[in-house]
Specification:
Layout (H helix, E strand, L loop, with lengths): L12 E5 L4 H12 L3 E6 L2 H14 L5 E5 L18 E4 L10 H19 L8 E5 L14 E3 L6 H7 L10 H23 L4 E7 L1 E3 L10 H11 L5 H6 L2 E5 H13 L7 E4 L2 E3 L1 H11 L17 E3 L2 H9 L8 H11 L2
Parallel strand pairs: 1-2, 1-4, 2-3, 4-5, 5-7, 6-12, 7-10, 8-9
Antiparallel strand pairs: 9-11
Helix pairs in contact: 1-8, 3-5, 4-5, 9-11
């Protein structure tokens, strides 16, 4: 089992997988800003070049290294990369939204298992392993019903739907993605329980994550949906269809990961990134404030409301430790996407 002192020490080396992604880039940048060293995995030398330039621009004297890893599920992929690492933020994952669970979930679960095993060898120095999961691992969005979301909840509905017999049609992609997040996270907790690793494990379950896009070469994830709509209101259909959800500011999500890596008392936690409940009308209200000259559609009175909540004490304590009064509010988060994206 992990020792009681198992955390990333000040100045320690953290491996951030998927460092060119939206959340991964902010975790890496946040760590560098706090004096930690970062080794990030990327899928190509081109990505290694631009992310290294971006990190160096923000943190000129920081210790950042990009390592090319084309296939994280390949046999032995992690053996050399984990050497000398104090902590791991495993952010990279399958975001294809493919409809066949055999092609999406099965290799991802096996790949995570191999990663955990590589981090748990006798010579390994890993003290913390933090997995980026998703609120969808816990439950599907539930509208008009109050409920308290907690760490014992799993999205059994999505798992059952994802593994229905074929044909594997495109509409199944969201359930497969949700089941992927649930089943990979469960594999990490199973490994922690049954294999007694010498490192502490935590997971972070972000909701719809928004903030300024870190670099122009990024796809931008959920922030790209927002930015596209702000640039041209005619692109609003996706946000309208997406409807009600919770949101979380990307730097808050990054701080949850950093706290899960570095704070002594954060152990065996599922940390939820729930900054507040929103729907399509919430986006429109902020868009109108930022640029009232554009032809924004009318509010939709039929928009649902997500009434789920989290306890949030552990998450808020982490944010306060890093100097924040609480979650970044929605208007400020949207402003960052629309006006500060690279």
């Amino acid at each position: 089992m992990a020792s009681s002192s198992g955390r990333v020490p000040p100045g320690g080396l953290v491996l951030v997988t998927g460092v060119t992604g939206f959340i991964g880039s902010y975790i890496a940048s946040g760590l560098l800003g706090l004096g930690y060293r970062v080794r990030g995995t990327v899928r190509s030398s081109d990505k290694a070049a631009w992310v290294t330039e971006a990190m160096t621009e923000r943190h000129p004297s920081a210790d950042f290294e990009a390592v090319v890893l084309p296939d994280q599920n390949a046999a032995g992929a992690w053996d050399a990369i984990v050497k000398g690492v104090d902590g791991i933020a495993h952010v990279a994952g399958d975001t294809t939204f493919g409809p066949d669970p055999n092609k999406v979930i099965t290799p991802s679960v096996a790949g995570l298992r191999s990663f955990l095993e590589a981090a748990n060898t006798t010579e390994s120095s890993v003290k913390r392993f933090v997995l980026t999961s998703s609120n969808q691992a816990a439950l599907n969005r539930t509208f008009g019903k109050e409920m308290l979301v907690n760490g014992s909840m799993w999205n059994e509905e999505a798992i059952e739907s994802a593994w229905r017999p074929p044909p594997y049609e495109e509409e199944r992609g969201w359930d497969v993605y949700s089941a992927l997040k649930a089943q990979t996270e469960r594999e990490m907790w199973r490994f922690s329980r049954e294999d007694n690793p010498k490192f502490v494990v935590n997971s972070v379950l972000p909701s719809c994550t928004i903030g300024a896009i870190f670099h122009e070469n990024q796809a931008g994830s959920t922030a790209k949906w927002v930015l596209d709509t702000f640039k041209d209101p005619a692109n609003h259909a996706f946000l309208k269809e997406f409807g009600a959800s919770h949101f979380c500011y990307v730097e808050d999500v990054a701080l949850l990961h950093i706290g899960a890596l570095t704070q002594e008392d954060v152990k065996n936690e599922r940390l939820f990134g729930f900054g507040g409940a929103i729907n399509f009308n919430s986006w429109l209200d902020v868009f109108r404030k930022l640029d009232p000259s554009k032809p924004w559609p009318e509010n939709d009175p039929a928009q649902p409301h997500d009434l789920s909540k989290i306890d949030g004490k552990t998450e808020l304590n982490l944010l306060k430790y890093f100097g924040k009064a609480g979650w970044t509010d929605f208007e400020d988060s949207v402003r960052q996407v629309c006006l500060e994206s690279r």
